[in-house]
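hiii so um. not sure if this is the right channel but i have a protein structure encoded as tokens and i wanna go backwards to a sequence. like what aa goes where. can anyone help
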């Protein structure tokens, strides 16, 4: 079984991509999805967030939600809004956000290679979120949300991508957030073979975003293997939908922290305790860290630049070296008393796409007491953690731009 494989994608009919494309299911809550899909009967949100077509307040994990998603999916097929390609192929997928551009490969990725950690992970998953994706895939009999993968860039793939994308894309749309999405099918058999063999020679590829979707792909494959007495290993359920991007094109933004209170400390007491592990300098403007080991702090209407003492940075621990870990282990846990950021309601996380003004707003309005800005996690750090079979702290990476749901889906046997 190859690491990546071409497949006959299920795609919007010609001229329908703009009607169908939707944000990923996990970046909008139900109320936001209801607004975004209003007046758009073919938006993929009717499949990925089908509770929007049920009474407000419906539990998004209720059985009726998955049934409604299947009903909407079948309707889009019956009306010819979604059409499956006749032959397996790969697809190139370009994202443009402002001045940033990245081009990835839409493919299906091997579940056995995921299970043996050749497709490497860096996050824990939550059972309830896994269960949700399993039920969604099993009900639709299709994988509609791609896993966001990355690989160490390769000259052979770079050259092929440059050549194929020199032609006009088959799909080229701009979403309502201003991000451009373009698709090129790769149908030439020699190109397909080159892609398959080049990736098959790689030691590993890495999950950037989509740990719950990939885990669900593995679980669905195990369920269907168990139920299939004629299982051969090449069935479509042995693969999960993915878009894989070269590491040198990926954009990770900062993932910042806001805290509800100072753990019983006054502002002066907090500054004094922080000064035991960090250098603290008051700043005249918002602090966007320029390098690892630097942090911004917004407290009492003022910004401070924090730089951690080098002696506190571990030399041989890829997780401990992360800025999110340095801040947690030397400030948020010992000083502010938050030891379990996954469950503690006193901490929240703000993606860098919202800007530092969002940190200021949440502190100034009294919702939060203090905010911290961080330098983005680097791709080489993510890969080092995954290679060590370790797990990153929660909310370590914020990838932009986001993939759209609905442009290419994978129908199972």
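sure thing!! here u go:
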């Amino acid at each position: 079984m190859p690491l990546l494989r071409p497949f006959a994608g299920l795609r919007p009919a010609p001229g329908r991509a703009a009607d169908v494309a939707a944000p990923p299911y996990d970046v909008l809550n139900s109320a936001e999805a209801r607004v975004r899909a209003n007046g758009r009967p073919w938006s993929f949100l009717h499949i990925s967030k089908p509770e929007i077509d049920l009474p407000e307040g419906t539990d998004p994990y209720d059985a009726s939600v998955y049934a409604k998603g299947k009903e909407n999916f079948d309707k889009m097929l019956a009306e010819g809004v979604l059409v499956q390609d006749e032959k397996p192929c790969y697809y190139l997928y370009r994202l443009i956000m402002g001045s940033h551009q990245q081009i990835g490969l839409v493919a299906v990725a091997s579940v056995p290679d995921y299970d043996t950690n050749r497709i490497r992970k860096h996050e824990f998953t939550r059972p309830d979120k896994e269960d949700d994706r399993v039920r969604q895939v099993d009900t639709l009999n299709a994988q509609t949300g791609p896993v966001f993968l990355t690989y160490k860039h390769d000259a052979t793939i770079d050259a092929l991508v440059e050549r194929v994308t020199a032609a006009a894309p088959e799909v080229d749309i701009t979403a309502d957030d201003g991000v451009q999405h373009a698709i090129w099918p790769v149908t030439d058999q020699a190109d397909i073979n080159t892609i398959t063999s080049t990736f098959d020679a790689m030691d590993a590829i890495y999950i950037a975003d989509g740990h719950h979707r990939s885990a669900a792909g593995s679980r669905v494959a195990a369920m269907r293997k168990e139920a299939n007495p004629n299982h051969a290993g090449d069935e479509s359920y042995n693969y999960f939908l993915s878009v894989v991007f070269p590491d040198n094109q990926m954009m990770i933004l900062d993932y910042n922290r806001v805290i509800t209170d100072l753990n019983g400390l006054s502002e002066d007491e907090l500054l004094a305790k922080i000064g035991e592990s960090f250098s603290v300098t008051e700043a005249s403007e918002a602090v966007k860290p320029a390098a690892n080991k630097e942090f911004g702090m917004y407290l009492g209407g003022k910004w401070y630049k924090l730089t951690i003492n080098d002696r506190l940075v571990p030399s041989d621990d890829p997780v401990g070296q992360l800025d999110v870990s340095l801040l947690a282990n030397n400030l948020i846990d010992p000083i502010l008393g938050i030891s379990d950021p996954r469950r503690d309601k006193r901490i929240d996380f703000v993606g860098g796409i919202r800007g530092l003004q969002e940190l200021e707003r949440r502190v100034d309005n009294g919702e939060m007491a203090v905010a911290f800005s961080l330098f983005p996690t680097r791709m080489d750090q993510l890969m080092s953690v995954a290679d060590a079979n370790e797990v990153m702290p929660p909310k370590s990476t914020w990838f932009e731009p986001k993939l759209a749901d609905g442009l290419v889906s994978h129908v199972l046997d």
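oh and The chain has a mean pLDDT of 96.
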